Amino acid sequence: MPNKFSWILLTTALLLYNCDSNQIFDEYKSVPNQWHKDRLITFSVTPPDSTKLYNLFINIRNTNDYKFSNLFLIAEINFPHGKTFKDTLEYQMAKPDGTLLGQGFTDIKENKLWFREAVRFDELGEYTITIQHAMRNNGEVNGVDNLEGITDVGFRIEPATN
């Protein structure tokens, strides 16, 4: 009987832990096997309130197969009326000793990476966010064709707190 009670308690704790009222949008796209440098990960978002400020995040799930200490991404936001914002981003993914950063108890780590802070979606309509990797090996001009170790790419919107 104690074993059954332990499972119920664990399940309840996990459900409470996973409930997140802070999200406005949170979606992941799987990256099967390898992330090709030309593959764009795309998210379509219609923000709920054009008067409020939001923080934007890129979420990355990676395994121990990820062999770099950093991650370069090109992220683009296409506004409903044609305006575009594009940025090249760099994130630290491992400590100097090679230990991967991020949350997770298994070999899959999840990283919540800042993209933009205090953004106002002031145009009504659908916004399109595209993300692609821009990784290169040291000393090489050409990019890494197929990036290993990334399993999922996500995009998240949260209300900005003052």
UniProtKB/TrEMBL annotation:
UniProt superkingdom: Bacteria
Organism (species): Gelidibacter maritimus
Protein name per its UniProtKB record: Gliding motility lipoprotein GldH
Organism lineage string: Bacteria, Pseudomonadati, Bacteroidota, Flavobacteriia, Flavobacteriales
Keywords, in A-Z order: Lipoprotein
